[in-house]
Design a protein that fits this description.
alpha/beta; Rossmann fold; four-stranded parallel beta sheet; globular
Length: 215
């Protein structure tokens, strides 16, 4: 999902820097970072500061999931999900907010999931981590509003990404049936929503969770 968003903005002529645990070939620069590591996040910010980069927007699309019933979820899996999804978002926002403030404002888009609103069975740890992202984002929106920075969440339903590996077609259909718009959406649909949130004309929209497909 993160790559699709990056490619969308590259096509529009924007300068994009991607962050990933394992940098891969892409039509934009990709720097290595583990968002679950505060030290790793700070290191990449030092690199950008050293270049004098002006940051106008931050999109936190990194996320992992594991299907387990709540009472059977291994502690190691729960910890890894929370560290990546919630702490990773917190670390990234903490590190990049000063760069946005220095640039005179901007936008932060964090990723949640429809699993929070629907309470999807088998996704308790994943949904809990993303619920934390939503609460953190709403609070951060208030804290950064005075600096001209908006903070919002995008909460997609099932999108054809690595997160859906191992999820049956029947399970996916059951989820989409609970959306207001009962169909599967694409990465391009999510990119459209992110594009709106990063548009300067959306500067009055902050502290919100936008569900792709509706709930």
């Amino acid at each position: 999902m993160g790559r699709a968003i990056a490619e969308r903005f590259v096509e529009q002529g924007r300068e994009v820097v991607g962050l990933a645990r394992t940098p891969a070939d892409a039509p934009f620069e990709v720097l290595g970072v583990d968002v679950a590591s505060e030290a790793s996040v700070k290191d990449v910010v030092r690199i950008l500061r050293g270049r004098g980069v002006s940051v106008e927007a931050l999109v936190n699309a990194a996320g992992i999931a594991s299907m387990n019933l709540a009472v059977m979820a291994p502690a190691s899996s729960v910890r890894r999900i929370v560290e990546t999804n919630l702490l990773g978002t917190v670390f990234m926002c903490q590190a990049f907010a000063p760069l946005l403030i220095r640039a005179g404002g901007g936008s932060i888009v964090n990723f949640s999931t429809i699993a929070v609103a629907l309470g999807l069975q088998g996704e308790s740890a994943y949904a809990a981590s993303k619920a934390g992202v939503e609460t953190f984002s709403r609070t951060l929106a208030r804290e950064l509003a005075g600096h001209g920075i908006t903070v919002n969440c995008v909460a997609p339903g099932p999108i054809a990404t690595d997160l859906l590996k191992g999820v049956s077609e029947d399970q996916i259909d059951k989820i989409t049936d609970r959306q207001i718009i009962q169909r599967r959406f694409t990465a391009a649909d999510v990119c459209d929503v992110v594009e709106v949130l990063l548009d300067p004309r959306s500067k009055s929209l902050t502290g919100q969770v936008l569900h792709v497909g509706g709930v």
